């Protein structure tokens, strides 16, 4: 039956039903497929290619024409000879999706997307390079109601901001992109123009060695003013960016500077790494060269800031906030830092302030009359090696890790590890300071936090040392079994963290090392590296698990441990405890104690391991090479076989009878000298015992019934007297 006969019999309504049931009626599908060309000719549907068309573009005029006159989705490949000699503005008017692929060419000028009413606009594999003459190469997004994507691209050596986003509209996403060596008066890498509400995300990217060297509202890599959108940073590495301008009104932010964020704004940083960013370090009496990595200044009460899973290392500020300065206009409770590490950040305190510069973070309240300010929610963070320097005469610093200043007074600190930061007094490290780590208002809440000294005397925090948390050998700042990376493909790094040492206890079960292990409270479900926090929780950004090998009366004989990397830990060369360290839920392999730990215990032989301290035989489940899952901490004890002292009695010429028998005894154990038992010698009388077979006089100390201590293998010989 042909198509028209089928229609005449079944009718047009049946045709509609067959379309609806097309997946269930394969016989009708075959008929429809047979007549597809006829249906298309009658205009019932159009047959078209769903893929975007691809065109090669040879110059900027051709690129502009394709974009502004597009009638379908297009991929525009810039030819190798593509040469853009001047800035180019693209005003897309259609709703079609456009992709520009620059994998074959290098662009030395700026492209501005002036309009994009709908559809996506993608810049892929772009290579913007300002070159030796440092041209203003980059992308500006002025108007777009469709999403804009910048993927797999490079922006280098430009004399202006690499990526500028303005106004409202759909989100801009930058992914797997390198932004390096750009210089601008307002953020060398990214600028969110004044009053912009456009959401902006950068992820899996590297932002490196960008520079601001002018005064005003600026940042070395990124800047914004009165931003009221969502700025998201994920898995991105900010390194070596500098804000060297120093304005009287505002400056700083070696990597990021945000001024006067709006009530709907949000700064969300996750799984990223801020390394060696800095503000101007060479000037004095300028109080705005703050925030070695980040400045968020004058943000309002409802603005939101969240930092999670991020490491700040070696950032430096000329004045306050070695890593971060938070400055609020009102009472802001929407600022949180979780699962993050702050290591060796420095605030130089050269702005002639009150001496609360904050080696890692300063929180400043900027409105008179408010009792609050930035109420920081700090949960499961690690602060170590941060410092507030005193470079001015008679300056006394407080708070090597955290400080508050101005009208900022509150904070909630839970499961934070704050041990091991420092402050200076008159240019010298102040070892007697009562505020080495923190100088915040005493009304701040703290729970399960170590090192919260805060100017107090007689508190346990003053007795704890960083060595009790990180070990007596240098702790290594590094990958630490982490897998989460930040950066551009080929340039990415594992986000570094600091390992804590496992808990060691003495014979009375008192903690002697590892005070950050198993002493935390309820906090984050996962640690900074993404590992679940199982068992008893740890303090700080990192959660560990461990297998403790206890010498159980003996010792291990090992080479000196030169550093602690989060894998193996012990103290000294003859430790009594040895730790194999892993991540929660790791598979622990029982080590060969005899060959790997070289155990020793005088007059004892090592047999193996047991979970029972008093075991006489090793556990079969703990033989060398056996596996066990460790969520938190497992402890195994060395099993020893004692080498007992043999004591033997000799008849020494007896003619009948049997010598008394003494069981082998432990070293230095007391025994009672036995009588002759059934020994007899014809013509002689037993008169005692001697340690010499040839003597004729017994040893009075060995008279039967006397008690003696045994310290070696011993033989007692009967002494006989002729009748």
TrEMBL record:
One of its GO terms (cellular component) is cell outer membrane. Gene3D superfamilies: Listeria-Bacteroides repeat domain, Single-stranded right-handed beta-helix, Pectin lyase-like. It comes from the Bacteria. SUPFAM superfamilies: Pectin lyase-like (SSF51126). It is found in: Cell envelope; Cell outer membrane; Secreted. Its main location: other. It holds the Pfam family Chlam_PMP. Keywords: Cell outer membrane, Membrane, Secreted, Signal. InterPro entries: Listeria/Bacterioides_rpt_sf, Pectin_lyas_fold, Pectin_lyase_fold/virulence, POMP_repeat. This is Uncharacterized protein. The lineage of its organism: Bacteria, Bacillati, Bacillota, Bacilli, Bacillales.
């Amino acid at each position: 039956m042909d198509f028209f006969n089928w229609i005449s019999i079944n009718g047009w309504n049946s045709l509609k039903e067959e379309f609806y049931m097309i997946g269930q009626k394969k016989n009708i599908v075959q008929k429809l497929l047979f007549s597809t060309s006829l249906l298309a000719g009658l205009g019932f549907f159009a047959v078209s290619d769903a893929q975007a068309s691809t065109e090669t573009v040879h110059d900027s005029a051709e690129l502009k024409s394709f974009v502004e006159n597009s009638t379908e989705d297009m991929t525009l490949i810039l030819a190798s000879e593509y040469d853009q000699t001047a800035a180019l503005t693209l005003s897309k008017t259609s709703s079609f999706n456009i992709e520009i692929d620059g994998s074959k060419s290098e662009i030395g000028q700026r492209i501005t997307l002036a309009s994009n009413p709908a559809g996506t606009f993608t810049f892929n594999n772009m290579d913007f390079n300002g070159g030796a003459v440092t041209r203003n190469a980059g992308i500006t997004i002025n108007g777009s109601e469709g999403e804009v994507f910048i993927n797999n691209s490079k922006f280098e050596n430009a004399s202006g901001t690499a990526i500028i986003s303005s106004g409202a509209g759909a989100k801009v996403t930058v992914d797997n992109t390198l932004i390096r060596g750009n210089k601008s008066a307002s953020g060398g890498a990214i600028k969110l123009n004044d009053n912009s509400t456009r959401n902006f995300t950068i992820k899996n990217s590297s932002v490196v060695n960008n520079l601001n060297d002018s005064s005003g509202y600026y940042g070395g890599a990124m800047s914004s003013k009165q931003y009221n959108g969502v700025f998201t940073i994920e898995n991105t590495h900010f390194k070596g960016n500098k804000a060297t301008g120093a304005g009287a009104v505002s400056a700083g932010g070696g990597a990021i500077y945000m001024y006067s964020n709006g009530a709907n704004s949000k700064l969300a940083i996750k799984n990223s790494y801020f390394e060696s960013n800095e503000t101007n370090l060479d000037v004095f009496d300028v109080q705005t060269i703050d925030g070695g990595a980040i400045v968020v200044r004058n943000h309002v009460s409802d603005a939101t800031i969240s930092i999670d899973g991020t490491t700040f290392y070696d950032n430096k500020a000329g004045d306050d906030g070695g890593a971060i300065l938070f400055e609020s206009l009102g009472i802001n409770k929407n600022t949180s830092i979780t699962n993050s590490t702050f290591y060796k950040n420095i605030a130089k305190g050269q702005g002639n302030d009150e001496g609360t510069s904050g080696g890692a973070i300063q929180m400043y309240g900027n409105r008179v009359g408010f009792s609050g300010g930035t109420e920081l929610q700090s949960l499961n963070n690690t602060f170590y090696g941060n410092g507030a320097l005193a470079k001015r005469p008679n300056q006394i610093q407080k708070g090597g890790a955290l400080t508050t200043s101005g009208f900022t007074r509150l904070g909630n600190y839970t499961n934070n590890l704050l041990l091991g930061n420092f402050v200076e007094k008159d240019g010298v490290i102040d070892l007697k300071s009562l505020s080495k780590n923190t100088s915040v208002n005493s009304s701040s809440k703290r729970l399960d936090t170590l090192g919260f000294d805060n100017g107090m005397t007689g508190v346990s925090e003053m007795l704890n040392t960083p060595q009790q948390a990180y070990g007596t050998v240098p702790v290594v700042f590094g990958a630490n079994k982490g897998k989460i990376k930040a950066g551009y493909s080929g340039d990415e790094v594992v986000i570094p963290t600091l390992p804590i040492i496992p808990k060691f206890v003495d014979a009375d079960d008192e903690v002697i090392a590892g005070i950050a292990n198993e002493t935390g409270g309820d906090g984050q479900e996962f640690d900074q590296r993404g590992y679940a926090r199982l068992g008893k929780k740890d303090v700080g950004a990192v959660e560990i698990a461990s297998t403790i090998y206890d010498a159980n009366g003996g010792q291990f004989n090992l080479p000196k441990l030169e550093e602690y990397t989060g894998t193996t830990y012990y103290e000294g060369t003859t430790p009594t405890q040895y730790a194999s360290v892993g991540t929660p839920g790791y598979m622990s392999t029982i080590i060969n104690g005899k060959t790997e730990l070289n155990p020793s215990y005088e007059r004892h032989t090592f047999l193996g391991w047991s979970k029972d301290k008093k075991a006489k035989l090793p556990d079969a489940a703990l033989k060398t090479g056996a596996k066990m899952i460790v969520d938190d901490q497992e402890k195994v004890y060395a099993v020893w076989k004692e080498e007992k002292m043999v004591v033997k009695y000799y008849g020494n010429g007896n003619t009948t009878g049997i010598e008394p028998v003494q069981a082998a005894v432990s070293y230095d154990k007391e025994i009672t000298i036995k009588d002759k038992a059934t020994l007899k010698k014809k013509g002689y009388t037993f008169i005692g015992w001697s340690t010499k077979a040839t003597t004729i006089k017994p040893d009075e100390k060995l008279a039967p019934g006397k008690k003696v201590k045994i310290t070696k293998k011993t033989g007692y010989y009967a002494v006989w007297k002729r009748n």
